[in-house]
Amino acid sequence: MGDTLSIKLFQALCAGLTMRPERKVILSDSGNFPSDLYIAQGLVNLKNAGYVLRIVAAEEVADCLRRQSDEIAVVMLTEVDYRSGRLHDMQEITALAHAGGAVTIWDLAHSAGALPISLAATGAEFAVGCTYKYLNGGPGAPAFIYVRPDLTETVEPALSGWLGHAEPFAFETTYRPARSIERMRVGTPAVIQMTALEEALKVWDGVDLAEIRRASIALSTLFIAEVTRRCPQLVLASPAGPAHRGSQVSFAFEQGYAFMQALIDHGVIGDFRAPNLMRFGITPLYLDRHDILQAVETIETIWANKLWQQQRYQTAQKVT
Ligand SMILES: *Cc1c(COP(=O)(O)O)cnc(C)c1O
């Protein structure tokens, strides 16, 4: 745990590329969160050694792995698409990547706390994620990195900070990585954020994620059915089948930004992702059928009264 997701991803990417020195391609998809793509592009520039970031459509990843398997060093994907909620098949893609000899990094930003994850079963080398989405750690809460246990003593830590040293308090002049996942620690942990996260995680004590998933699917299905029935002009932008979706639901609407501002003003808090998506997080730990139906009611009211057209909802804020 520690740092931010962008930094943990950088560490995983560096380590992954080092594991396949003869290959030069990082494969990702266009639905990935921009920061992940920016970090990969930055690393490609920094290495200045012929690396390329190849970005394909999410549906083309599997085919690409079958066709170009000997060029790809690292497959870097986010399991749940931040805009649409579309879910990748981690098992299938990791197996394809491994069949072609590539290292796999999964970003679980929109998965952790949203659905059960069988990371170890996939055999993926790396995973990263943050704790301020479904895990409620609050902005600035620490990120996490997973390294497959058999690799923790050999992966190369690119950010060789003192707390990843085998003996940080020996204060040696030369870096020697810890012989464990500890080598992925960089510097002093953010103790205040860790403490906030520790408290946030207590609501998960004794919670079965399979049950959360069942409830999430039931609530999302209800939400989609009711919004679609009452406001048919809002277009579902998430996969209709729950097996292909994480725990968020998005609707496309041209005036989506203003519509979401009106919704927030009326107590239903979602967010907006450019160019036209209204995104709703379905969190069964503290939302039930009543909340969902009340949210739909509010959406319908705003729709029927054209409340989003009011002037005060038109000005875009920096954070959407
Ligand atoms: C939220 C999110 C991030 C944000 O990274 P930070 O460094 O924690 O700001 C990165 N990648 C994905 C896929 C995300 O969903």
Describe this entry's structure for a reader.
By secondary structure, the chain is α/β, with parallel strands linked by helices. The chain has nine helices and ten strands. Strand 3, helix 4 (90-99) and strand 4 (103-107) form a beta-alpha-beta unit. Pyridoxal-5'-phosphate binds at residues 4-6, 33, 35-36, 78, 82, 107, 109-110, 130, 143.
- Give the overall form: globular
Q: Which bin fits the share of residues in helices?
A: 25-40%
Biggest β-sheet strands, sense, barrel? 6 strands, mixed
Identify the bound ligands: pyridoxal-5'-phosphate
**Average of per-residue pLDDT values:** 96
Secondary-structure element order, as H and E? HEHEHEHEHEEHHEEHEEH
Q: Which structural class matches the secondary elements?
A: alpha/beta
**Which runs of at least 5 residues are low in confidence (pLDDT < 50)?**
none
Strand content: 5-15%
**Quaternary structure type:** single chain
Strand order across the biggest sheet? 2-1-3-4-5-6
Distance between the termini: 27 Å
SS summary, helix count: 9
Radius of gyration: 21 Å
Number of strands: 10
